[in-house]
Amino acid sequence: MTSAHVDTFARDHLPPPEQLPAFLFELPALQFPARLNCAAALLDRACAQGWGQRLCIRAPGGIAWTYADLQAHADRIAHVLVREMGVVPGNRVLLRGANTPMLAACWFAVVKAGAIAVTTMPLLRAPELRPIVARARITHALCDAALAPALEEVAAESDTLRTLRFFGGDAQDPRSLEGAMARHADPFPAVDTAADDCCLLAFTSGTTGVPKATMHFHRDVMAICACWPPHVLRATEDDVFIGSPPLGFTFGLGGLLLFPMAIGASTVLIDKPSPPVLVDAIRDFGATVLFTAPTSYRAMAPRGDELRATRLRKCVSAGEALAAATRALWREATGIELIDGIGATELLHIFISAREEDSRPGATGTPVPGYRARVVDADGCEVPAGVVGRLAVQGPTGCRYLDDDRQREYVRDGWNYTGDAYVMDTDGYFHYQGRTDDLIISAGYNIAAPEVEAALLQHEAVAECGVVGVPDEERGQIVKAHVVLRPGHEGDAATVQALQEFLKATIAPYKYPRAIAFHQALPRTETGKLQRFKLRELA
Ligand code: 3UK
Q1: Distance from residue 143's CA to the centre of ligand 1 (Å)
Q2: How much is the pLDDT for 65?
Q3: How far apart are CA 414 and CA 21, in angstroms?
Q4: Which ligand 1 atom lies nearest to the CA of residue 435?
Q5: Ligand 1 interacting residues, C-beta cut-off 6 A
Q6: Is the pLDDT score of 66 beyond 80?
Q7: What CATH number labels 439-537?
Q8: If you measure from the C-alpha of residue 420 to the centroid of ligand 1, how many angstroms do you get, rounded to a whole number?
Q9: What are the boundaries of each domain within the chain?
Q10: Half-sphere exposure of 157 (CA within 13 A, CB side)
Q11: Which CATH architecture best describes the domain 37-192?
């Protein structure tokens, strides 16, 4: 297959073939042509098949773009990229902004131009942007004017990042994107890329250390649209999608942009999607399909009565384990059964999940059609149902780290190892047990932090919690719980004792937290993941 890339950086830094996972294309919907541009397949095809006048993206402030409007914006931006900024196919273009229609248009422009989109999370500052720009050898950037300073600081020191344009600022500025867009009204024909040309680099949200770049092809983007959405989510063209994950997190890119567009539905992009803002927006925009993380569901649950009066009908939880208590809380509050799904940046989107009517409390679900999953021991041998082991996955998508030795850890014998401990039950449902590296070993007992967290969340005083092992001379480690209390509860000795008694009565007593600390909030990544390493450092 002939690559359309003139700049061959991505292809040159793919993992060696023997370190790649197996890729499965068994489903009829996964038979991709050799030439494929996913931006053309999603956006241009939507317009060509008569969806041009359908509503595509709305945002606060009265913005409402049809598919044709999005295409017009993306085409103007693509012309600016190619004719004014000198982008050639294969260049890496950094995108930086909150979730807005303009950020979405920039993504489609970059991908139509055959370049590689590197969407970053809006909260990142110079120290976090610097390694991304360096590792991805970013050459160009499109950035929200409100977030310009940190990127300009990094660009000033970079040998590769030379050409920047800013949107949402002063259109008279020579580097204004909108100012340049006004000069280009012609349609932009998408670059005829190979299905296996790279179109996006996604940096892992990293609850730990050095960021890794995962590489995804045009066909990978189409593959995730063909697997989980039609088989598990089952949304329709009348649905209105909404949610909190940034487009720089592949959970958000899929859920809030690719999946609605693949079926001709519409999406609502909210720039600052805190739980209260999200509840108001669900009501105001008549949203029907919601994507967010477990903590955000807990925070919105008290407004369940208001949500019952909206059109909301499908709610997806991913990013972190969904405790049975949170599933029950949301069902009692809103009447809606959550759709849990585990996804990973390396696999692009969700690969184990369950339809609402097939969901089981405490289980993530079964492998999504198109994927296979198994639980294995340290030697890679499958373990029987009921035994805890490492999760290994294969499907149409899989891990390709850009120039990184950690490829050998994530992919072994053709399987993707997500770093999660799971147990499969006799019905084939997968139950999350924790990260393989955050098992707590106390006095010889193996204790999974999420199990202790799930039990704590059943107590009425607990709003949020995170459990870690802390070093202990006598026991090796002890279980320590970091707790955020609900309003009206005091973080005093009596509460510590009440929580400890409650836990001993709820789960095996050796698992109870010997230490409990109270906080106003827990340290989380921008994607909503608890940063357990920060809690460990607190000890
Ligand atoms: C954890 C879950 C239990 C798990 C993601 C949906 O989270 C996403 O990608 P990341 O690379 O993190 C991957 C890791 O997060 N995790 C995610 N979902 C669940 N654990 N239950 C879940 N439902 O440790 C996994 O290995 O940030 C999620 C879609 C796209 C994504 N990138």
Answers
A1: 27
A2: 98
A3: 4
A4: 24
A5: 204-205, 250-251, 318-322, 340-345, 349-350, 364, 418-420, 432, 435, 527
A6: yes
A7: 3.30.300.30
A8: 9
A9: 37-192, 439-537
A10: 11
A11: 3-Layer(aba) Sandwich (3.40)
